[in-house]
Specification:
Elements: E1 2-8, H1 10-13, E2 17-22, E3 26-31, H2 40-52, E4 62-66, E5 74-80, H3 83-96, H4 98-101, H5 107-125, H6 136-150, E6 158-168, E7 171-180, E8 183-190, E9 193-200, E10 204-210, E11 218-223, E12 226-231, H7 236-254, H8 257-262, H9 274-293, E13 303-311, E14 316-324, E15 328-333, E16 340-344, H10 359-374, H11 397-401, H12 411-430, H13 440-448, H14 455-463, H15 465-471, H16 475-483, H17 489-497, H18 511-527, H19 537-547, H20 550-564, H21 574-590, H22 592-597, H23 602-614, H24 622-635, H25 637-650, H26 652-656, H27 661-674, E17 675-676, E18 702-703, H28 704-715, H29 720-747, H30 754-770, H31 779-783, H32 798-808, H33 819-828, H34 838-843, H35 850-860, H36 874-886, E19 898-899, H37 900-914, H38 920-945, H39 954-966, H40 980-990, E20 1000-1001, H41 1003-1011, H42 1014-1021, H43 1026-1036, H44 1049-1078, H45 1084-1089
Parallel strand pairs: 17-18
Antiparallel strand pairs: 1-5, 2-3, 3-4, 4-5, 6-7, 6-12, 7-8, 8-9, 10-11, 11-12, 13-14, 14-15, 15-16, 19-20
Helix pairs in contact: 14-20, 15-20, 16-18, 17-18, 18-19, 18-20, 19-20, 21-23, 21-25, 21-29, 24-25, 25-28, 30-43, 37-38, 37-44, 38-41, 39-44, 40-44
Length: 1108
């Protein structure tokens, strides 16, 4: 590898380098301790020094120096991993540089010319691959070490590297941490002790920063049940952020494809660099910006500047940051007053704003204002100002079914009016609408409860749905018209759940409420088919329709599902599970007494799932639950977490004394039944009846406002930033837990040792991912669908199968180029979709008795049968599973007979299996004896059936044998098929030859003959060390290079009918004619002439089985 010329001090270098070649201008040297005469104490010391100092010499122990005769300065210009590589560089210099140097007069000119030439070569080499790196020269050297030490495929992209210590037990190992697209790698070499670690990002369960007495700061990685700690990092925070981004990138790409496809910043994995990850960091900041200010997903953070904002209600300037996006100007204070404001540029005109401050801010704001002035069509009207479809309800259901009686005001209604007055005073002071100031006083009013009349307006404002609706006028009406009459799985589920949504409320006992609910849910399923419809969406939407107009309820649902509760309403509710893990962490931090008395906190996860999915609507009376929804729209998921802690804290004494989970569930249910809203103005006919109202309960009534106020007082210190950080940390664990559950469900279907199945499943899944690591459009990656049955989630194509099968195969013939690996794939791929699942793969390993193994080999040589081609959906899979249970086990009598062509290939397969075995000679003789016996049995049977049939002549046999020699001997990358067509064609071509009777053998005949040969029986019943095989496969899996296949599996299947029959018909005629003519067993010349034994088998006439 050519190096950027660097000056070195040769005086000290002589102690560590040995000169091998030199001339007037160049010197070739070898590092001491390497090559001939290397090793020993010198090798250990030099190797340790090179690793600690991150010297390229550790992996490239050869180098070339440039110097001039009248100068004492030396320049390193090349290094090499092997002597052959450095010699190639040396010879290039001799041929291309040495002659040119003689024309220069001065040493300075010579050195300048050599340096310029080397820099040109480096620039040419790195023109494509290293152009995006921050320091291409150093990165080239690091990449060389990375490739040499870890031997990963060349497609693996190194992102960055750091010096650090890795704690192996209680001893730190100083070395280098390499972070690539798909792997976390570490290498250390100290005094002959080499430590090498390779962990794929998709295998990591936890990734977090930790500290303890020994390690002040370190990065903790949990993978495969083992803890790994990395410390002594110069830039620990930067390293952790990059590791977090790479792990998140891998999880989204391999497991959570929906999130991956939603983010345009995620592109080709081969293009990821450290600079690219900084772009991902900017993308993450945009996500935080949108989440904090509740802006549409199209907005991106463009500029951030510190500034002062004049706060009119406090009459002073507050320090904070101005954040600019494409269509919004936002401000958030930094003094802890939690004051922020959102200004949509569509509402700003030049005569209403006076822009001061830096030129950047003025320019950005003015450009946005100019855009809306030049494009008045973009300045959309506010909510409710555009005509809606007549089919869409324009009133909130609560105003229809519970209109306020202005004349008759009871105490509750008077208190409600007082709340409204408080909010009106707040509006007059802090503003109203999208540009209102959000302050601590706003939160205080939220905690005390939102008036019924203002609830819909404030939900729209706090959630940001008001901006979505304002920028998409008429969108909902169009969706309703387009989705009208559609019939999908989502619409069927919606119809089933319509009458289960708040059935006790009068609004949903009439067609008005049910129709509105149907339209909103169907329109959203039509808008977002990836989510479609999920249970709990109906309950949430019902509450939204009570207080918001139909179109507003739709945009509120969009805000909840797509922004405020991400990944909650997908197939695996990953978002809800992640927040439950966050909830468990908060319980450990804030409720230590509960943790001490309850060892398993997973109970709270199962209980609280409905709390998160329905925002407590499913467990609290409706008049109390809406107060929780108020807080949720203002503070997000933080409000739900705080309330959950408050509920557990309130019931602490009772929960600590529980004997089992059922008792704890009863206590919590009774508590929720006792929660009331004493200020609710709703009449009894509208209020939801508590489950335990008819029973005497010891619970004192708890007011929801007091419970929420207590939650904010005790747990209001929880920061949204900490919640997001905990979400990232727990997402890895949650997804890996789901994957582990998938594995357990798959493994439970087999009757093998759990440890072996676990390792085998991990290998199978890893092979699936290996085909996804280095390409964006891998068939295996595109096919992965978590909604499928467990067995169908991870599947292998033929190329991946053959590579893994070659590492685990029980017999020697199964290599990646083996024809039989294709036959095995064809046999186990029952639905012929070109993919096999884990269950089918286990069938290919040939575990079982001698009879089962022989039956598997026998079935490989049968022609492929017709079966369903295509993807198996869930219902079809269940039906297939039911049929598999009901059908009786296949017996040896059910197998069809094997014909002449297939029998010859079966014999060849047996010979190839035994190649390389210590008992190879006796096994060959046994196969020859069995084959001869079977052929003579069939010959006798044929003569008894056709006594007048003339025997084949010697000339015919010789002619057939000659034809076999002249026929193409291409490698049969085919599947065995029937030879009827080819056989009849050859008979017609022969002309004068009489037609021959088709021979065939049953499996019972083959089995009975082979059972008489102890050598063959012992070979197949020989025990295999499965753990050793799995261990070797795990080490070699990453090193196996995938070879490009020129033709697809389908092409191979089609070609099989032609190539196999063309070749084997000639082979069959030569073989049979030879046996019949000479009335003898298989001889050497027969196998050699028809290429039954390939040259690789090493069979010669001297070593081949002799005829008897």
């Amino acid at each position: 590898m050519w190096l950027k010329p660097e000056e070195i001090l040769l005086k000290n270098a002589f102690k560590l380098w040995v000169t091998e070649k030199d001339n007037e201008y160049f010197i070739l040297q070898r590092r001491r301790g390497y090559g001939e005469g290397g090793g020993g104490l010198t090798g250990l010391l030099v190797g340790t020094l090179d690793t600690v100092l991150d010297s390229t010499s550790k992996v490239a122990p050869y180098r070339i120096l440039h110097h001039t005769p009248d100068s004492q300065v030396y320049w390193s210009i090349a290094c090499g991993v092997t002597k052959e590589e450095i010699v190639q560089h040396w010879e290039w210099l001799q041929q291309n540089i040495m002659r040119t140097l003689s024309v220069f007069d001065s040493s300075e000119d010579i050195t300048s010319f050599v340096q310029g030439k080397i820099r040109g070569l480096i620039a040419e080499e790195g023109k494509t691959s290293l152009v995006l790196e921050e320091d291409p020269e150093k990165f080239r050297e690091a990449l060389l070490r990375f490739e040499k030490w870890f031997e990963l495929p060349s497609e693996e992209k190194l992102v960055t590297y750091y010096s650090c210590s890795y704690w192996k037990g209680k001893v730190p190992c100083q070395g280098w941490l390499y972070l690539s697209t798909n792997f976390l790698c570490f290498y250390s070499y100290l005094l002959g002790s080499e430590v090498k670690l390779v962990i794929s990002w998709d295998e990591i369960w936890r990734l977090e920063k930790t500290s303890n007495v020994i390690l002040t700061e370190s990065i903790h990685v949990l993978a495969h049940g083992e803890d790994h700690y990395f410390s002594m990092l110069l830039h620990l925070n930067e390293t952790f952020v990059i590791m977090e981004q790479l792990a998140d990138y891998s999880i989204k790409r391999l497991f959570d494809k929906e999130a991956f496809q939603r983010e345009p910043a995620l592109s080709d994995p081969l293009q990821i660099t450290k600079r690219y990850l900084k772009g991902l960091e900017a993308h993450a900041k945009s996500d935080q910006f949108r989440a904090f200010f509740r802006l549409p997903k199209e907005e991106n953070l463009l500029e951030v500047h510190e500034s002062f904002l004049w706060v009119p209600f406090n009459h002073y300037n507050t320090l904070g940051k101005i954040c600019l996006s494409e269509n919004y100007l936002c401000f958030a204070s930094q003094d802890g007053s939690q004051c922020h404001i959102i200004i949509p540029m569509r509402e700003v005109t030049s005569d209403k704003i006076s822009i001061a401050g830096s030129p950047v801010i003025r320019g950005e704001c003015q450009s946005l204002i100019n855009h809306f002035e030049d494009n008045p069509e973009d300045v959309t009207l506010m909510v409710g100002q555009k005509d809606s479809s007549k089919a869409v309800s324009t009133e909130a259901l609560m105003t229809v079914f519970h209109p306020q009686d202005v004349e008759n005001l009871d105490p509750k209604m008077l208190k409600e009016k007082m709340k409204e007055q408080s909010w009106n005073i707040h509006f007059s002071e802090y503003g109203r609408g999208t540009s209102m100031f959000f302050t601590r006083k706003t939160r205080d009013l939220i905690v005390r409860g939102v008036p019924e009349a203002l609830r819909g307006e404030l939900w729209m404002l706090f959630s940001g749905a008001v901006n979505d609706m304002a920028t998409h006028p008429g969108y909902y009406s169009e969706l309703v018209e387009q989705s009208l009459g559609t019939s999908t799985l989502a619409t069927d589920e919606i119809e089933r759940d319509l009458h289960r949504s708040l059935p006790e409320h009068p609004a949903f006992q009439s067609d008005t409420g049910i129709s509105a609910l149907r339209r909103v849910l169907t329109a959203y399923a039509y808008r977002n088919p990836k989510i479609g419809y999920c249970q709990a969406m109906n309950i949430l939407t019902s509450v939204l329709l009570l207080y918001a107009k139909e179109e507003e309820a739709f945009w509120l649902l969009v805000a909840v599902c797509e922004r405020m509760l991400p990944d909650y309403f997908n197939r695996r509710i990953i978002g809800a599970l992640v927040d439950q893990a966050v909830f468990e962490d908060l319980i450990r931090e804030n409720l230590p007494q509960l943790v001490e008395n309850m060892t398993d906190l997973s109970f709270f996860s199962s209980v609280s799932l409905s709390w998160f999915l329905t925002l407590f609507i499913s467990v609290l009376p409706i008049e109390s639950a809406v107060n929780v929804v108020d807080c949720f729209f203002y503070d997000g998921i933080k409000a739900i977490l705080q309330l959950g802690l408050a509920v557990l804290d309130y019931n602490m004494e009772a929960l600590v004394c529980c004997h089992d989970d059922a008792e704890a569930v009863t206590i919590l249910n009774k508590f929720f039944d006792s929660v009331t809203n004493k200020d609710s103005p709703l009449p009894p006919t509208v209020q939801q009846a508590s489950v335990g109202n008819n029973e005497k309960t010891s619970h004192v009534k708890v007011d929801i406002s007091e419970l929420i106020r207590e939650a904010y007082e005790k747990y209001g210190s929880i920061r949204s930033e900490d919640v997001e950080s905990s979400r990232k940390r727990n997402k890895l664990y949650v997804i890996q837990t789901l994957e582990d559950t998938t594995k357990q469900n798959v493994v439970s279907e087999f009757r093998l040792i759990d440890a072996i199945l676990d390792e085998l499943y991990n290998l199978f899944k890893r092979q699936h991912f290996l085909s996804c690591y280095w390409t964006m459009k891998s068939p295996a990656l595109l096919h992965h669908d978590p909604s499928l049955a467990y067995l169908e989630q991870y599947q292998l194509g033929f190329q991946q199968f053959s590579m893994l099968f070659s590492l685990l195969e029980p017999w020697a013939f199964c290599t990646t180029k083996s024809t039989l690996s294709l036959w095995v794939f064809r046999l186990i791929d029952e639905n012929q979709d070109g993919l096999i699942n884990f269950k089918e793969f286990c069938c290919a390993l040939g575990a079982g008795s001698f009879t089962n193994k022989l039956k598997f080999l026998f079935k490989l040589h049968l022609p492929p049968g017709e079966s369903f081609v295509g993807k198996v959906d869930l219902q079809a899979y269940l039906k297939q599973w039911q049929n598999e249970i009901l059908k009786k086990e296949e017996t040896i009598k059910d197998l069809p007979r094997i014909n002449q062509t297939q029998f010859i290939q079966f014999s060849k397969t047996l010979y190839n299996i035994f190649h390389g075995d210590p008992e190879e000679e006796s096994l060959y003789r046994a196969v020859a004896h069995v084959t001869s016996l079977l052929l003579r049995m069939e010959e006798v049977g044929r003569r008894l059936q056709e006594p007048s049939s003339p025997p084949a002549t010697t000339a015919a046999a010789d002619t057939a044998a000659t034809s076999a020699e002249e026929s193409p001997t291409e490698e049969a990358s085919t599947t065995p098929g029937s030879s009827n067509t080819s056989g009849s064609q050859d008979s017609q071509d022969a002309g004068s030859d009489p037609p021959e009777t088709e021979w065939s053998f049953s499996f019972e005949q083959v089995l009975a003959s082979l059972l008489n040969e102890p050598a063959i029986v012992n070979f197949f019943e020989r025990p295999v060390d499965i753990h050793l095989k799995l261990g070797q496969a795990k080490v070699a899996q990453l090193k196996v290079k995938a070879e490009t296949l020129d033709i697809s599996v389908e092409a191979l299947k089609i070609k099989s009918v032609l190539t196999w029959e063309k070749r084997c018909s000639v082979v069959c005629h030569a073989f049979i004619a030879h046996i019949v003519t000479h009335s003898m067993t298989l001889c050497d010349s027969c196998f050699v002439k028809v290429n039954i034994l390939p040259p690789a088998a090493g069979i010669s006439p001297a070593s081949a089985p002799k005829s008897t």
